[in-house]
Amino acid sequence: MSVTIFIKDLVKKYDDTTVIPELSLEIKKGEFFTLLGPSGCGKTTLLRMIAGFNSIEGGTIQFNDRVINQVEPGKRNIGMVFQSYAIFPHLTVKGNIAFGLENRRLSKAEIASKVDDILKVVQIEQYKDRMPKNLSGGQQQRVALARAIVIRPDVLLMDEPLSNLDAKLRVDMRNAIKDIQREVGITTVYVTHDQEEAMAVSDRIAVMKSGVIQHLGTPQEIYQRPANVFVATFIGRTNIIEGSLTPEAGGHRLHIGQSYSEELSNIQLPKSHAQKAINVQISVRPEEFVMTEDQTGLKATIVHSVFLGQNTHYFVDLESGQRVEITQESKTTQILDPGHTIYLKVKKDKINVYDAEGELNYTGSGQL
User: Fold this and answer.
1) Distance CA 292, CA 111 (A)
2) Which residues contact 184 (CB under 8 A, 6 or more apart)?
3) Would you tell me which CATH number, out of the four given (3.40.50.150, 2.60.120.260, 2.40.50.140, 2.30.29.30), belongs to the domain 239-354?
């Protein structure tokens, strides 16, 4: 059970439109791997190609050393959990879970044993005799998950499995799914458009746009050093500010606004740009701003604030007219009023600096 998935030069076309152009990817054995991106980016199309539900117009998909391009979906030994739970309304919980095992013609004793084991793993053994209509959304999702993994598939595919649940239950279920996946150790490919969900459950994430992987890495890597501005703005919240870089002894100087600059030692430029001033885009997450009394910082005016317990979010206008969001730890002192003038600096080892088009990250690893 569990395989490495090798995807090489994969192409998907609908008529004359290419939606996935020569995508290559390796998903490790036992990994929880997430395809993340906005609607229409190709993530579900790719999942369905792995499942065998969509045709392949070029390239290969392998489970270990077995090419599966022409293998029927039912013979790929996959488990699948859909957005709609797709559980049978006329069968009990244990009847739903046993369905796949019965199709594999296992003995009644073996089926009963496997069903009892998986009921304990997904923690719904007390509901085994209930009908689906008498289950909550979270319980129904656990039934769907149990049915998918009880057959011991090589690969578990999950397509937006939590989108029909309310916010609190989504959090509870994503934690449960991650715990269950770790326990059973199945190679899992998970599709979602929810970046927080992806960050919470994944070993690695592929952020997709227009059928192309923009960044592949761990949640920490993608959040801290996004490959481009698209990834920076899609993963978490960030402010994109225009600035410039000039070379100086030992590094570069980043200029933001009229009077604020910081020396950076972690900039890696192409040789063609190394010795000249260039325009850049700067990604500064709300928590990467620091309020300061130093008037050489970015001058800003508070527009409004949102108190969220531990942190307060301020929305402020810079002198340029750009509105940015900053996050500060809530203090016992009064929250600053609209119209209040403040000065801002950035945590220079945390921010990311991109080329003028926002396609190339100039920022090295630095001190994180």
Assistant:
1) 66
2) 121, 149
3) 2.40.50.140
Is 175's pLDDT higher than 90? Answer: no
At position 200, the amino acid (one-letter code) is A
Beta-carbon contacts of 104 under 8 Å, excluding residues fewer than 6 positions away, are 151
- CATH topology for 5-232? Rossmann fold (3.40.50)
Tokens of 84: 């709609």
**What residue spans define the domains of the chain?**
5-232, 239-354
Residue 366 has pLDDT above 60, yes or no: no
Place of tokens 């260039």: 278
Distance (Å) of CA 306 to CA 22, 298, 332, 338 = 45, 21, 15, 11
- Tokens (6 digits) for 368: 């994180």
Residue by residue, DSSP assigns 71-132 as S-GGGS-EEEE-SS----TTS-HHHHHHHHHHHTT--HHHHHHHHHHHHHHTT-GGGTT--G
Q: Per the confidence metrics, is the pTM higher than 0.85? A: yes
